[in-house]
Amino acid sequence: MDLVTIDEARAHCRADSDDDNLLEVYGAAAEESAQNFLNRRVFKDADALDAAVLDNVAGDDPMVVTPVVKAAVLLILGHLYRNREEVVMGDSASAAQLPVGATTLLWPHRIGLGV
Question: InterPro entries from the xrefs (predicted)?
Answer without folding.
Answer: Phage_gp6-like_head-tail, Phage_HK97_gp6-like
